[in-house]
Amino acid sequence: MNAIDTYIKTHEDRFLNELLDLLRIPSVSADPKYKADVARCAEAVKTRMEEAGLEKVEICPTAGHPIVYGEKIVDPARPTVLVYGHYDVQPPDPLDLWHSGPFEPVIKDGMIYARGSADDKGQFYMHIKAVECMVKNNALPCNVKVMIEGEEEVGSDNLGVFVKNNKARLKADVVLISDTAMIANDVPSINTGLRGLSYVEVEVTGPNRDLHSGVYGGAVANPINALCEMIASLHDKDRKVTVPGFYDTVRELSKAERDALAEAPFNLDDYKKDLNVKDVRGEAGYTSEERSSIRPTLDVNGIWGGYIGEGAKTVLPSKAFAKLSMRLVPDQKSEPITKLFKDHFEKIAPPGITVVVRPHHGGEAAVTPIDSPAYLAASKAMEETFGKKPIPTRGGGSIPIVALFEAELGLKTVLFGFGLDSDNIHSPNEKYGVFNYFQGIKTIPRFFKHYSASAK
Ligand code: BES
Ligand code: MN
Ligand code: MN
Q: How much distance in Å is there from the Cα of 425 to the middle of ligand 3?
């Protein structure tokens, strides 16, 4: 690996500056006003993939934002790694909480501050640079296919279509994704599970128009009061979700599996201190780590209605709204859970209130093996660069495409993430360590080497 490590050192500044350039493009997929920027970002990714030595690089249009695809086939008889990542980012709001512009990357105390630095530009770009290192040093030991999409943060709907229509092109032996976090820089870990998702929006209607809260208040159902009652009733005193049937398909972990997960270092006091909360709260009978990984949840993501301007306005509003998400675990399935929620939520509406539940997007949970050649290669690669064997952990976030790769292409994934939970992904001041970026670039070629040696 010496030649590659030397190459990385020689090109260090350029590797960093190229990432900063990518971070300057506001590729926000959720907001149509950034559509041209998203397209510009796809172009930049295409150029960078070509420069890295990938071939047949192409911008593949979809009904939404484009997918960038490229490959380098060294020998069809060798195994093929399919690298997936996303160049789209979350909206930067709330802007006033950023210490520097979300799309004006700055490096401070070894951290790269910008929207998308950790999720996922900084992480997928490590793969482009790792490919460059291997290609330019004649050290790419197997085939690589790279697919970077622009709609992960909005549910990857069109990627699903693309995968279904391009099964031959995407044929591979394993999927490699860097879009998750490790425990700490000195405690490397590999995610072996992701949660699924069911996301809905609810509209609650009371009277046909806003009313004077003195003239009508107390006599007519207030949709905001009703929405709050309904939401409050979705958890019982043990913080279990009350939607009937919600837990029916949950695969409980064995004591041995739970014990294994509990091996990962976790300090509850540090956790509370970091978040500035006096106590944690969650489902009875489970630890904080379990509540945020192997257990399903229901959270309100946004709620609005009535008067929220300056001062006071005495009004009994006609409507109230909320966005809710449920994180799902194996073997809960997104669609049936959405249906259970919808039926339940409509049923618990108090008299005089009508409810509409609109499903947004969803995704299925995934669990990845820890005994496959690819996992073992990833583990060995990390052990070499971190000096410690990585711990397998279950993550709480969702990458819906992982379950789809398995269903459509029959492929297992290695979640080769180099971020940290403290990177503020989706939050103001998102950051990614310069150390983590280069550590990824160094580790990925080692994965390729070990994987090629062990597979086929
Ligand atoms: N990279 C994250 C997912 C993630 C983060 C997994 C940290 C594990 C640890 C991804 O970009 C993401 O944010 N996914 C969304 C789901 C999507 C359907 C909007 C999520 O988890 O909310
Ligand atoms: Mn991501
Ligand atoms: Mn994300």
A: 7
